[in-house]
Amino acid sequence: MKVKKFDKVLVANRGEIAVRILQGIREMGLKTVAVYSEADRVAAHVLRADEAVLIGPAPAAESYLVIDRILEAARATGAQAIHPGYGFLSENAEFAAAVEEAGLTFIGPTADSMRVMGDKLSARRKMRSSGVPVVPGTDEAVTDPEVATRIAGEIGFPVLLKASAGGGGKGMRIVREAGEMASALRQTMGEAKNAFGDDAIFVEKYIENPKHIEIQVLGDGRGGAIHLFERECSVQRRHQKVIEESPAPSLSPQLRQEICDAAVQTARAIDYRGAGTVEFILAPGGEFYFLEMNTRLQVEHPITERVTGTDLVSAMVRIAQGEGICYRQEDLQQHGWAIEYRIYAEDAARNFAPSVGKILALDLPQGPGVRVDSGIFEGFEVPIHYDPMLAKLIIWGENREQALARSKRALEEFILHGPTHNIPFHLWAIQQKSFISGEYTTNFVGEEFDPEAWLPPLDDDQRQAVIAAAALFEANRRSDSTTAPTTPGSSRNHWRLNARRAMTGNR
Ligand code: ADP
Ligand code: ADP
Ligand code: MG
């Protein structure tokens, strides 16, 4: 890579991650450019950039995913570098190549690294040849159910059929016995073709009761790499994370070191440049296997920033400016405990189905140990076109116990009216025995969350009635208490909290 200094950066993304990246770039004294679709004319990221360029209609395929539109926006504004965020074009090797071909700097890895890691089969082959342990399974695509069944017999049922091009928890199917193989393979191939335009499927051992442990890495693009320790991401629904924490509870120092070493080995094997995440699956017996590498900034990067005292966005920019890795391994330590809650517009009672609507009221929690990365504001209409993640609540404590106590406090203070959201789900999760013990696995939600027993959310009329009742109650209480002072802090919070609890089904 030819190193070119730049002073204006375009962020090719939307939502909370675009806001987060714009903040980091501004702090470095660089100018910022946002891009937006017609659905995002007044979105949070647009309001926070020095300049903003409309790149097309609401559907991502006509705006945030159109390489030429983004390059054109960079040209028009004179931006010399592009940060892709996560999702959208962030792991698209053609995009990275096109950016560099246009004479701009791509703030991320090379197109080659993305090609190797973007395809799960080629990543497996690369890792196997580099001596990093991969999940037992095939390194070639499988189309014949008989072949798949034979392989499954060799590695042992249950197995996982996985789309080589898959991502976001999609394109996976568990097969528990030979009889299920033919139809499972056909269906997974069809889904993969549909979702990713590629029907390559491989067979992998399904690890029972595992933990998802991932390691943040930074590479200099010349074979140098460091790690920033682990994140435990086993609280998942539909194979997608909803709560992450760092450090991982119940990981011995020795195992931590071994996994971190394997991640650094992974980054070195491909001369990785920039920030990346190496994901591992950890079996109950302590064996761990490479799952995949995400060649981008990760959703849950803030918990790593919090415990290591680093700034990953600025680290990415500095690497892209040719400064190399701005941290030294020996200076990095995990300090305290950080937990992230992804705040999704989704309905836990309806199998976490996405929800949309206008943000009617928003009051973010504050105070010690609280960080909120958000892409919303009061009055914002959550578009149906994109990922339903609205914000992330990141909590830090001196230890896990304090982080959990703060989590409960902050989740209770988080006022969000409008679309159905998963704050009540988080409050449920952090009060479960297995979560508190830290012994939870990726089965946690599937086994312990019971949508049937979940209080269904209220409909709009009921919501209005609850708000009116709570307001009336509060007005009466205030007029009653004009002579007698109340306990500090109790009045306002209480009716809001009660109203919110009633509206979101949180008991
Ligand atoms: P992380 O691994 O950073 O925790 P997620 O798996 O939650 O990330 O995905 C991050 C974002 O990227 C989400 O918006 C998700 O929808 C999107 N995403 C991930 N993989 C793909 C893919 N292969 N195709 C399209 N979108 C994807
Ligand atoms: P994606 O690209 O969709 O993120 P991953 O390969 O990272 O796909 O897997 C996503 C999740 O699926 C993991 O975090 C884990 O919960 C589950 N998973 C993946 N592979 C296995 C496996 N071999 N055994 C058990 N669970 C798995
Ligand atoms: Mg993954």
Compact description:
The protein is α+β, with helices and mostly antiparallel strands.
Descriptors for this entry?
single chain; about 500 residues; alpha+beta; Rossmann fold; Dna Ligase, domain 1; D-amino Acid Aminotransferase, Chain A, domain 1; 8-stranded antiparallel beta sheet; 17 helices; 22 strands; about 25% strand; globular; binds adenosine-5'-diphosphate; binds magnesium ion
Could you explain the architecture of this structure?
The chain contains 17 helices and 22 strands. 36% of the residues lie in helices and 23% in strands. The chain is an alpha+beta fold. Strands 13-12-9-10-11-14-21-19 form an eight-stranded antiparallel β-sheet, sandwiched between helices. Helix 16 packs antiparallel against helix 17. The chain has four domains: 8-107, Rossmann fold, CATH 3.40.50.20; 136-205, Dna Ligase, domain 1 (2-Layer Sandwich), CATH 3.30.1490.20; 211-448, D-amino Acid Aminotransferase, Chain A, domain 1, CATH 3.30.470; 460-504, no CATH class. The radius of gyration is 23 Å and the shape is globular. Bound molecules: adenosine-5'-diphosphate (2 copies) and magnesium ion. Residues 86-87, 167-168, 240-241, 294, 298-300, 387 line the site of one adenosine-5'-diphosphate.
